[in-house]
Amino acid sequence: MESERSFYEYLQSFSETRSPIDFVLIYDNLPRFFDGALVTLQLTFLALLVGGLIAVPLAIARAYRKPFLSPAIRVYTYVFCGTPLLVQVYLFYFGLGQFTAVQESFLWDPILSNPWWCVIIAFTLNTAAYTTEFLRGAIEATPHGEVEAAKACGMSPFTRMRLVVLPNAFRRALPAYSNEVIFTLHGSVIASTVTLQDLLGVGRWLNGRYYLAYEGFLTAMVFYMAIVFLITFVFRMAEKRFLGHLRPREAPAPGSARVAA
């Protein structure tokens, strides 16, 4: 307790005499920022989880040019990849409520009138569209020889997809998916525009409550940077683990190899 009191007093003195930033207000409101970070992480990773589950069958249908399905999926991905995420959130949150049939449906009260669910739906469909496209490319990039070898072993199409094609595609899609995770995290700031108190929403609240210029935004920025650092670290470890065999290896120095007797 004594050390905490002395730290608080030092922080107050530093803010009043040496710093243009009010660190005392930031420190006092850190619990709100942690709550906002929890909301941001819930929105981001729930959307990524559900969107990833949706993207896998869609990517398979696109990669194998399934009749009727592939053109419909292509239109879906074009719409969600070709329009801003902010517009998509507004269409779900503000647009659907303009239709009487939607307001009278069984989905209105529990889901479509709730900003949380509108944001989740928009984020999920958006990330599913992007994931579908780069996962389709990863499936198509599966070496033909591996597929032919699986056929020669007598594997059924489902078994080849489960044991050969999808594991290979998931490994190759890791670098692109790490970017998608970070982009989805950054895109989650849109949630604050529809009344959700995510990280940016808490920063806006702090600045508006105490008439500050940048303390709230700077604190939110530090939180985002810390989360991105952790995400990047996790994906680098995963790439090192699962993509190590694809990295070029250094050639042995001349004369270093032993000649068998």
UniProtKB/TrEMBL annotation:
Q: Name one Pfam family in it.
A: BPD_transp_1
Q: Identify the keywords attached in UniProt to this record, alphabetized.
A: Cell inner membrane, Cell membrane, Membrane, Transmembrane, Transmembrane helix, Transport
Name the residues that span the membrane: 37-61, 73-94, 114-132, 181-200, 212-235
Q: Which InterPro entries match?
A: AA_ABC_transptr_permease_3TM, ArtM/GltK/GlnP/TcyL/YhdX-like, MetI-like, MetI-like_sf
One GO term under biological process is: amino acid transport
Q: Ranges for the ABC transmembrane type-1 domain?
A: 37-235
One CC-aspect GO term: ATP-binding cassette (ABC) transporter complex
- Per UniProt, what is one GO molecular function of this protein? transmembrane transporter activity
Q: How does it sit in the membrane?
A: Multi-pass membrane protein
Q: What is its main location?
A: membrane
Q: Which top-rank group of organisms is this from?
A: Bacteria
What subcellular compartments does it reside in? Cell inner membrane; Cell membrane
What PANTHER family does the annotation carry? ARGININE ABC TRANSPORTER PERMEASE PROTEIN ARTM (PTHR30614:SF10), MEMBRANE COMPONENT OF AMINO ACID ABC TRANSPORTER (PTHR30614)
Give the family from UniProt. Belongs to the binding-protein-dependent transport system permease family. HisMQ subfamily.
Q: What is this protein called?
A: Histidine ABC transporter, permease protein HisM
